[in-house]
Structure formats: structure tokens, C-alpha cells
Amino acid sequence: MAAELNLSKNFVSQIETGSRNPSDRTICDICKKFRVNEEWLRNGTGEQYLPPDEEATYITELLGSKDNPLYDMIKAIMKTYSQLSDNNKIVLQEFCRKLKENQ
Questions:
Q1: Closest CA to 52 of 30, 37, 63, 66
Q2: To the nearest whole number, what is the mean pLDDT of the chain?
Q3: Does the pLDDT value for residue 86 go beyond 80?
Q4: Which residue in 9, 21, 41, 88 has its CB near the most CB atoms, within 10 A?
Q5: DSSP characters for 34-90?
Q6: What is the pTM of this model?
Q7: Higher pLDDT among residues 57 and 23, named by residue
Q8: Please, how many CA atoms are within 13 Å of residue 64, restricted to the half-sphere of its CB?
Q9: Which pLDDT score is estimated for 24?
Q10: Nearest to 26 by CA among 52, 44, 16
């Protein structure tokens, strides 16, 4: 959790033991990263997790099973995209936008 939020393990440990309180920013980061309901995190009321959004559901269905014949290809595309420079990502995004316009 500490690594996911760019926090030190010691700081997270202090929050867990109650010796430090998380900042509003940290609470927002936890809620966003882990889809936790902020009301539940702050007050213990309501559902613990937010319902999955439509996009997350789609991605889970797409990659949720290695039985999907496209699983390895989709995984390779995502990995390759993440390794591109920011400039190359912009070029690829522009290419995809133009391709969509021309369909």
C-alpha cells in the first residue's frame, strides 16, 4: 500500500497504529487508488468499496481470464504502450484519434 501511494512504510505503519492521522490528500489518494468509499474510511458508515465503474468492469472482463484468446496480445499491447516515451504516447494517441475519425 505504501508503494502504491508513494508513502513510506513507516508512515503507513503509524497510520495503522493510530499514532499519526492521514492527511485529507492521503485519504483522497487511498479512496481513488483502491476505490474505497471515503465516508466509510472516515466514519465507518456506508459500503466499504465503491461499485466498479463501467470502464473497470469492461477491462476486468477483457483481461480477467487467460482463457481469452486475446489475453496475451492485449497484455503485450498494454505493456508496450507503458514503455513508450511521453512524446511517442502522444503521437500514438493522435494516430488513434485520426483513425477513429476516418472510420
A1: 37
A2: 89
A3: yes
A4: 41
A5: HTB-HHHHHHS-S-SBPPPPHHHHHHHHHHS-TTSTTHHHHHHHHHHHHHS-HHHHH
A6: 0.51
A7: 23
A8: 7
A9: 93
A10: 16
